[in-house]
Amino acid sequence: MSFVLQASDLEPPGGLFDFNATLPLMVLQFLGLIVILNLLFYRPVSHILDEREEYIRNSLTTASAYLVKADELTRQYEYELAESRKNAQNIIKTAQQEAQILVSDKIKEAQKETDKLLDSAYQQLNIQKEEALKSLEVQVERLSNEIKVKLLGN
User: Which ranges does the record mark as transmembrane (predicted)?
Assistant: First the structure.
């Protein structure tokens, strides 16, 4: 009797793939592990991923809504700015026309005043001319009388 064990004595018949009671136990362990991992890990992780996906989707929807609103406000402000510019140009044009009318009225008024002053000066000159002529006539008549008296009188 020998007490030396050989490797062939320890291996059961069938070799590496032995189908005995351990195979169903391993299948049950594997299925149990799958259930436990599903409950403890996969379900919470997938829930977190779903929440994150919903948050991202909501953020994108909100951002799109804000972008549309910003574009609409930009168009509205650009339209209002264009209208304001048109109104400002119309106001400036109206003010220029009013100023032009005011200036031309002032020029006409100054022209009329100048004409009045010229007429007044012309009338004054005519009066002075007539007075000077009368004065000259009187002097001429007096001088002619003196000449006449001197010529005839002596």
Answer: 20-42
